[in-house]
Write a structure and sequence with these properties.
With 352 residues, the chain is an alpha/beta fold. Helix content is 34%, strand content 19%. It is built from twelve helices and 13 strands. An eight-stranded parallel beta sheet has the order 2-3-4-5-6-7-8-9. Strands 1-10-13 form a three-stranded antiparallel beta sheet, with helices on one face. It has a two-stranded antiparallel sheet with strand order 11-12.
Amino acid sequence: MQITFTRPDDWHLHLRDDEAMASVVTATAERFARAIVMPNLSPPVTTTEMAMAYRQRILNALPADSAFTPLMTLYMTDLLGHEEIVRARQSGIVQGIKLYPAGATTHSDAGVTDIRKRYPVLETMQKEGLPLLIHAEVADPEVDIFDREQVFIERHLIPLKRDFPALPMVFEHITTKDAVEFVSDCDGRMGATITVQHLMHNRNTLLAGGVRPHYYCLPILKRGTHQAALIEAATSGDPHFFLGTDSAPHPQHAKEAACGCAGCYTAHAAIELYAEVFEQAGALDRLEGFASLYGADFYGLQRNRGTITLEKHSWVAPESYQFGQDRVVPFGAGKTIDWRLAGISRQADRIS
């Protein structure tokens, strides 16, 4: 059995940098035509000039015949100014500004401390039509980690949508039924990415019978009822929802530690794993919209002209991959994956 559809895009990706980035970028480029690359390096990507340099490092790490296009983002800090927003929009390579509440996730220490103080910059973004990409969790230590997305909706997203109705926003890596309902009720200027780990698993996988660090990500896996709501949203054909892997590689020793870091590395088999979810839901015919069409439409980009072919053929994910001078353990290491990449047709021009 084979399925062929428009080549997909990844609308939320972490590539890291230097040797580590060079070890993982090809896995994404083999499957996806484009990807929104997150800016939370150390130091973070805070200017258009830094984004252009990072983009070139990514391109330099790709095979010569690759048609993959990295789409860049800037990291919103308390110091981001109006002029940089205009430069970013005029550059043609920056597709959004990423909002991390300070302390919410990996390398978010330089994030925003008070969203309301960023309102003047958001007004400029609204005027320029530059999307706001939101890690929607409060970092308040008084809020239970399983409730941080829901509380962010109440405290921040509802006011943001009210105060900036024309600003395109992406609610990144949604994890709850509350998020699904909020996004579904919004207009076309609100989109949401959904990861494969949140579609395939819930918090039982992470915690039942022992802590499994390679399933630990932020936002954290939630209850099975929330997982069911995400599957329903992803497979519904609703264009609010589109693919964003949030693939986030970390060295094995940093995950398997007393204070292990958050992030799942899924780029090695991302589209294959999404195909499993859609097949199990009886919705393979809707995978193309979710993976290949709705994200491009939201960002106002042309849909890809190439295709990807997946075949129903089981294979076992490796226990680890090279990751710079270290190893990275992939999502589902040592487990059987039902679909595999059979081929791609590269007909899409790279965006300059």
